Amino acid sequence: MKAILVTGGLGYIGSHTVVELQIAGFKAVIIDDLSNTRVEVLEGIEAITGERPDLEILDLKEKESVTEFFEKHKTIEGVIHFAASKAVGESVENPLLYYENNVGTLVYLLKECRDRGINNFIFSSSCTVYGQPDILPITENAPVKPALSPYGNTKQISEEILADLCAVSDLRSIALRYFNPIGAHDSAMIGELPLGIPQNLVPYITQTAAGIREELSVFGDDYPTPDGSCIRDYIHIQDLAKAHVTALQRLINLENKANFEIFNIGTGKGSSVLEVISTFEQATGMKLNYKIVDRRPGDVTEVYADTNLANSELGWKAERSMAEALRSAWEWEKKVRNL
Ligand code: UFG
Asked: Is the pLDDT of residue 99 over 90?
């Protein structure tokens, strides 16, 4: 059976994607360095699918280990590359770490793929490449704006590397530009495991509801939006995970229209921070403590996807609601905290 390498496969998006890959009949082989997750995630995956994926704990920066990995696993026919650092603030403080972790390792991985004739490559990109868009909803043709952080820049550079390589080789690649992934698997066997104080909205909300954080800070209510808070496109993690399987099948079945393709992966619907809070309260019956504070530097006002290309060309569509996603995030938080 041919196998798919999932780098960062024990992370938040990676683990949900491994589940969907297995359900679709693929064998998943994971590389993870455990820098931002726990090895127990493997048990969660196995509990859902009944199948334990292969795991190699290694750091993609160690080039020799990566080569050894491919020597050992000769049946890999595609790669889904998640492994990357993703904290915007940390990237500002330590840019070299981000360029090495996110760009350097991509180069090593692509060299191995080139040398071994592995031509199907899915890349984990981000709507961050659009910055504050001029036109909403954002299509894939919207200009890529100067990055606001080294993290954002690594995503832009990575897309350029892939485009350049696809132009001169047999590599076929799809970059998926994610909007805001939230929620957990329906089974509550896997979910997001932020270390320390969460930076993202939904884990902060669920930890506040669980009593771990006293109060959620809403970063600004004076934006030019209907209720003054920022607007994002929140997508259920299982919908996002399935998009990877669909994209991979497109490459394997040679259905791609160009060697490098880009798709927005969102719901197409924008929701404000205050709407997320009220939807969470309705969906879970919990009351959330929150206060309005100053804007967070670097936040864009409003971002949501035009998903027409993903719907028509990729044949993928988000199916789950934000309420479902928030309920699943809460079920997961309760499970993790034994509530
Ligand atoms: N927010 C709060 N309070 C919090 C956390 C977030 O009000 O405690 C607000 C933010 O201001 C923003 C919204 O909730 O308006 C969403 O914030 P997140 O941090 O959850 O998500 P972002 O849209 O800022 O971040 C996403 C991805 C990042 C990526 C970034 C680039 O999660 O990986 O977009 O813009 F880098």
From this structure: yes
Closest Cα to atom 32 of ligand 1: 180
Reported as a single tens digit per residue, the pLDDT across 153-180 is 999 999 999 999 999 999 999 999 999 9
Name the residue of 182, 200, 212 whose CB sits within 8 Å of the most ligand 1 atoms, as the mutation to test its pocket: 200
Do the beta carbons of residue 56 and residue 230 sit within 8 Å?
Answer: no
Q: Torsions phi, psi of 48, nearest 5?
A: -80, -45
Residue 126 CB less than 6 A away from ligand 1:
yes
* Ligand 1 near 86 CB (within 6 A): yes
Residue 226 identity (one-letter amino acid): P
Q: Ligand 1: distance of its center to the CA of 124 in Å?
A: 17
Is the CB of 204 within 6 Å of ligand 1?
A: yes
pLDDT exceeds cutoff 80 at 6: yes
In whole angstroms, give the CA distance from residue 16 to residue 10. 9
Domain locations in the chain?
Answer: 3-182+234-265, 201-232+268-337
Global pTM reads 0.98
- 151 assigned to active site: yes
232 lines ligand 1 (CB under 6 A): yes
Q: Is 246 in the pocket of ligand 1 (CB under 6 A)?
A: no
- The superfamily (CATH) of domain 3-182+234-265 is NAD(P)-binding Rossmann-like Domain (3.40.50.720)
Assign a CATH topology to domain 201-232+268-337. UDP-galactose 4-epimerase; domain 1 (3.90.25)
Give the pLDDT score at 3.
97
CA-nearest residue for atom 30, ligand 1, is 128
How far from 113 is each of 69, 79, 164, 250, CA to CA, in Å? Answer: 12, 9, 15, 18
pLDDT (average), residues 203-212: 98
Collect all residues with Cβ–Cβ distance below 8 Å to 225 and sequence separation of at least 6: 231, 272, 301, 302
Mean pLDDT of the residues in the chain: 97
Cα 267 to averaged position of ligand 1 atoms, centre (Å) = 16
Q: How many helices (H) and strands (E) does the chain have?
A: 12, 13
Q: Which of 151, 223, 234, 304 is catalytic?
A: 151
